[in-house]
Each structure stands twice: as C-alpha cells, then as structure tokens.
Specification:
Length: 718
C-alpha cells in the first residue's frame, strides 16, 4: 500500500465499491503505518498482533480517548473485512455496509481535521485538549484540483487516486442506475464563451455541472444570450441571464466546459430538450465536478464557524460544555433572516430555496459530493479544502450522535431536544426548548433542523422510495415526475402519448406504476400516521378514509386528513419480495388493486393457534387522555410502535371488521408487511392501519425465499 511495495505487473480490476474501499484503506494505512509498527517481542495479551504483507508486526489497538478513535476503529473493521482472513466471515451485504460506514467516518475525519488545522490559534488555545493530528501532509493538500490547481506528484505516483474521495461520504450514489455512460448533448465552452455540441469536440470533454434553482422567479419572458443562438433563455428575477457568459466564467473549476441548464438544455419544448431532461443521471454522474450555486447566500462565515465547532466535538477536542460558543453562535446563512429566540416559529425558518426544489433533490441525490458556492462563486472550504455537501451531512450526523450520547450520559434532557426529526410533530416545543437552553450554537441547531426538515440527514444512504417520498414534499412548478424520473431510473412512461391522470395530484399514473415495478415490493411498505378525531373507534365510513394508504407519497386532500408518511431509510439485509406483490396494481385514485396476497395471520385464525411475536407500527390509534400526553399523539412512538402477539392483535384490534397481516417482503428470516382492515365486515375494500415486522433469525438464511403462501383475495386497498 506504499510506494515501496512491488505492485503486480498485470492490472487488477476492481468494481467501484472495491476501488473506493482500496483508496480509503490506502489513505488510512499510510497515516498510521509507522505509529502501529511494533517488534515481535512486544507481543502481549493486551495487544492485537498481526503480521502484514510487508513482513512486519503491527498492533491495531485504539485508544478511545484519542481524537481519531471512531475513524480508526471503523477503518480497522474495513481492513479486517477486506484484507485479512476474517474476510470470509462477511457477506456481500455486510461488507457493503462496512464500506458505507467507513466512507462516512473517513469523510468526517478528513473534513474535521482540515477544519481544526485551519482554526485560529487563539481558538485552539481555548479548547480543552488541543493536539497535533495525523492528517494529511502538505503535499497531499496540493492534490486537490479545486480551485484551479495542477495535479501533484501524489497523483502521478498513485494513478487512479482521487483525493476528493477521502472527503466524499458516499461510496456510490444511486447504485440502482444501471448505465450512466454518455455525455450531455450541449456544454458551455468557458474559454470561448459559447454553447457547443459535444459530438463536435475532438476529445471527451471534462466538465463541471452546476446545480441551482430559478423556476419560481421566472418572469415569463425570454432573451437572446451572447454565445447561444439555438434558443432564447427564460429571464428570472434572481440574476440577469444576459450576463451568463460572465457569470459562468466565474465558476471556480479547472474543467474547460460547464453544464448549466439554461444554456445546455433547449428551452423551447423541443424533442432535444425532452431528451436532455430524461438524461439528467448521465449529465450529473459523468461530470468531473458538480457545484451548487447558492445565488442568494452572500457569505460562508457562519457555516465555517459551526464547522469548527462540529469538528472539535467530533475529534474529541472539546465538548459542548467546554467549547467557547461565542465563536460559533451565529447563523449559517442557509436560512432567511428570522428571530432566533425562545419564541421561535419553525415555519419562520425558511431555508434557501435550493433546499425546497424538486429538481435539486434529484441533482443532490445523483451527486451528493457536490461542492457549495455562494452568490459570488466563493466555494465553502475548510483550510482551503472544498467541503462536499455529503461531508457536511455526515459531520452533522456524527456530531449530533456524540452530543446526544453525552447528554444521555449526563442525564441532560437537552439530548432529546436535539432530535428534531421530521417524524416528530411537536417540533415547535422542542425547538424553543433547545434555543432556550442555549447549550448548542445557533449554527448547529440550524443544520439539524435543515437536514431533518428536508430529509437530507439520510443523504449518504438514501434509497429510491425515500427519494419518491421526499419528492412529493418539494416544490415543482409543473411536471413533477420529469424532475425526479432520472434519479429513480423511471423513464419509460416519458415516451407514452398519454401518461394518465395524476395520482394524489402528484405523479402521472404510468409513472407511479413504473416506479412501483422498478422500486419493487418496498414501494408499498411506508409507515403511516393519521390523527384520530373519531373518539374511541377506528372503523370509519369509507368517505372519511384517505386514498393512497400504501403508497410512499401523499398530499392533503380537501375535507379528508391525509396520512403522514415515513420511510425507514435503511436496510437490515437483502430483502426478498413476496411473489404476490407482483400482482398489485396502482389505480388513478391512489388505491391499489390486490388480486393476490400472502396473509401471514388474520382475525380468522383459530383462537388456539400458536403465538407469533411481531413489532408493529399502528397508523390509527386512540390518543391518550390529555393529562398524560407528553408529545403530540400523531407520532407518539411508545403507543404506535410496540411488540405484540400478532395473531392476538389481529383478533382484538377493533374486531367489528377483520384485520390481516399481509407479507410484502422477507429479510434474514423476518416477515415484513402491512396491517390491513376491512372497511366494513366482509368487504373486499380495505385500508392500511399499520405495518409489522417479525423477528430476524440467527440461522444462515442467505438462500431463504419468501415462504408465506399467496392466495386469491381480489381486494382493493384504499
């Protein structure tokens, strides 16, 4: 792994996951190699000794008190899984999860160490435990090609090395997209200030893609832009499009070409424009770099300040009790101006519009490693390193986890307040309490709120169905499905002459049906919650029930409270869909035709049947009396989420009509699915009242298939 090692003459071909894992381990190894080496006579029961390929002995013990303990341990796990005899013990899925965890910690440590190095000396002097950090040498700093810098000798010595990888918290973004080879049809030639067709270029061009939002500010008029003759460019009130040649000349990148939608996607509703809209995955995934242009943000001072705070927490240099918060207690600039006080209103915290655009959701999911630039094209950096957006997300998550653990250790109720997840509806009380405590700096509170509100806290592990749910909560002026189809790889419907009506006023019917096929059974497994206003009973008139109860998106409908949806954005193992789900068909009103279903248990089972333990999430439930309600019952976890005998629950949960536990998937021996209830006794029309999950097995179930038998039911699920 070092320059002294003789590499094989024949090339070794690695898949993208292996390649990224190799370079993370290489970076880790060259940093720790010298400090880990020990002589063979130092062996003791307290030391874990390993003989490496270089014929030397190394001790891999980590001191939990040191700044790099978390990073070291995660990388050591990956090292043992990839390169030692222990690798045979890991399944492909387990190895992938280790790689993901290692990427997050590598990103956090890389960014935090750079931030610490760049801290003012007077701030370092105030910290609890200032120290030297083992990260990267000055020669490595020069290897970043952003802003405009030349390649360093490191890259010549190690071909294939991409320095930005160490700060990228995502192994491979959107791995479900099978093929992203290709190029945009048009690019902006920076040197000549004009739009060119890529097929006319002599060599494959390197280009930087720009993510930004402008549609909400369109004036309805279009103008001719110098260097672009093929179409007129729509005007907006955010920036003068006639100045685009000058604006694009300021993009801080070393690539000779830029992709910018207004000058690279025909704005004339032509077939070429439609083709380019459908190829957003190719355009963004193939870009050498991607930057987001926050054209309403003027300064990074506040974000830089909170980065220093989070870095000190992550590196265990300071705690929230010892860090001088006066150095970090300022807004990030990612929100419009608002009153930060104990009377704070979450709705008054309006984030930059980029965070609410549906088009930018697609772009950040395709390239979570994009760099951030303010309106003057100044990149957000720490110690001259550009910070990828997913690295910021990873560091916020790691910092929050550390602070929550510390608060729990000190029996501090602030810890609960820091959890402002979207699944908790009583956010106003929590947010005001957090501000009133003044334990954490404003910048951290803003970042936690922003990432929770937008769903970006899970960016590093985001899944297809979660993107679809987030998409239903974002702004899109028109043609919502077009703005998200490329990242989901759901594009077949786009060529149909009629894509059908909008399902739940969100997406065209044919788009939804194709998405259900592409995503698979997990499409139907979202959690739901609905406020209960009908005291003491769940059995409702059909007119009172919302539609789309098993779809992964929803919108409020007139006169009928809509379900609030939540998706578990993680995987416990390889999920195997029950074959019956292939027969389910989404209808235009949001209901689902269910010809066949795999019924695990139901109200009709015999009373003496064996018990079946399961964890359930109930969408409809009776709220507690007002005197005992601590939080809004809409997401009252202890009551909605509990362990039950599933068979007994089906027989006793409002038994006026039948209840069914219907399997959707199996994973590691665990059956997972829907809790359905008849609208009326004996009715073939049902609605979802919850979800269930039976325990996993410790046996080797790598070859197990879904075993719950399917039967003909001919149901319609609202």
């Amino acid at each position: 792994m070092t320059s002294a090692i003789n590499l094989p003459e024949r090339p070794i071909y690695l898949d993208p996951y292996q390649e990224r894992s190799f370079w993370m381990l290489w970076n880790w190894w060259v940093r720790y190699r010298d400090s880990l080496e020990v002589s063979s006579n130092q062996s003791s029961p307290q030391h874990s000794m390993h003989e490496c390929a270089e014929g030397r002995m190394f001790s891999y013990d980590a001191d939990d008190s040191v700044s790099d303990a978390i990073y070291f341990v995660e990388m050591l796990k990956l090292f043992e899984a990839e390169l030692t005899s222990s690798s045979d013990l890991y399944s492909v899925l387990a190895l992938q999860e280790l790689r993901k965890d290692a990427a997050v910690q590598s990103s956090c440590y890389y960014t935090a160490a750079a931030s610490y190095r760049g801290m003012p000396s007077e701030l370092k002097a105030e910290l609890l435990k200032p120290r030297e950090l083992r990260y990267p040498t000055s020669s490595f700093r020069a290897s970043h090609d952003y802003p405009k810098e030349s390649e360093s000798s490191n890259l010549a010595t190690h071909p294939g090395l991409r320095p930005a990888w160490f700060a990228d918290a995502t192994i491979v973004s959107c791995p479900w997209i099978a093929d992203t080879s290709g190029l945009p049809f048009y690019l902006w030639d920076v040197a000549n200030g004009r739009t060119v067709e890529t097929k006319e270029l002599a060599e494959r061009p390197l280009y930087t893609a720009v993510s930004h939002t402008w549609g909400r500010w369109s004036t309805g008029s279009s103008v001719t832009v110098h260097g672009l003759d093929a179409w007129a460019v729509p005007e907006n009130t955010l920036f003068d499009v006639k100045q685009l040649p000058w604006i694009l000349s300021r993009v801080p990148t070393s690539t000779p070409y830029i992709w910018f939608d207004l000058v690279c996607i025909p704005q004339d509703n032509s077939d070429r424009g439609r083709d380019e809209i459908a190829r957003q995955a190719v355009i963004f995934k193939e870009a050498a770099h991607v930057v987001v242009w926050f054209n309403q943000i003027g300064s990074w001072d506040g974000l830089e300040s909170v980065m220093q705070y989070m870095s000190a927490i992550y590196l265990n240099i300071a705690s929230e009790r010892t860090y001088p918060t006066t150095n970090s207690n300022q807004p990030t600039g990612l929100f419009r101006d608002y009153d930060y006080s104990t009377q704070i209103e979450p709705d008054h915290m309006v984030p930059d519009p980029w965070f609410s655009s549906l088009w930018t959701l697609q772009e950040i999911c395709l390239r979570p490693d994009m760099w951030m630039c303010n309106r003057d094209w100044e990149p957000f950096t720490v110690d001259n390193f550009p910070v990828p957006f997913n690295s910021l997300v990873a560091l916020v998550g790691a910092c929050r986890a550390t602070l929550l653990a510390d608060a729990s250790l000190h029996q501090d109720d602030v810890g609960l307040s820091l959890d402002m997840t979207r699944s908790m509806s009583n956010r106003e009380t929590r947010l005001r309490a957090l501000v009133g405590k003044a334990t954490y700096p404003q910048g951290l509170v803003e970042l936690v709120e922003l990432l929770d509100r937008t769903g970006m806290k899970d960016l590093c592990i985001i899944e297809k169905e979660y993107i679809l749910l987030l998409g239903s909560q974002r702004y899109c002026k028109s043609r919502r499905a077009e703005a998200i189809m490329s990242v989901l790889d759901v594009k077949g419907w786009f060529s149909l002459p009629d894509a059908g009506p909008l399902v739940l006023n969100q997406y065209p019917l044919e788009f939804v049906r194709e998405a259900s096929r592409r995503i698979g059974p997990g499409f139907f497994n979202a959690l739901s919650s609905r406020p209960v206003s009908h005291a003491g009973r769940v059995l409702l008139e059909e007119a009172q029930l919302s539609r789309g109860t098993i779809l992964p998106f929803t919108v409020p409908t007139s006169g009928t409270p809509a379900d609030t949806k939540l998706l578990l954005n993680w995987r416990f193992g390889e999920e195997i869909g029950n074959p019956s789900v292939d027969s389910w068909v989404v209808r235009a009103d949001g209901s689902v035709e269910m010809p066949h279903a795999a019924i695990l248990v139901s109200s009709h089972d015999e009373q003496q049947a064996a018990t079946r333990a399961a964890s359930i999430w109930v969408a409809y439930d009776v709220p507690k009396e007002a005197s005992s309600v601590q939080f809004d019952p809409l997401w009252d976890r202890p009551r909605r989420n509990r362990t039950v005998d599933l068979r007994s629950w089906c027989q006793t949960y409002y038994p006026t009509s039948a209840n069914y536990a219907v399997e959707v998937t199996r994973c590691l021996g665990s059956s997972r699915g829907l809790l359905l209830k008849e609208v009326a006794p004996g009715s073939a029309r049902l609605y979802k009242v919850g979800n269930y999950m039976t325990p996993m097995t410790t046996l080797d179930v790598s070859r197990l298939e879904a075993t719950t038998a399917s039967r003909l039911v001919n149901w319609t699920v609202l």
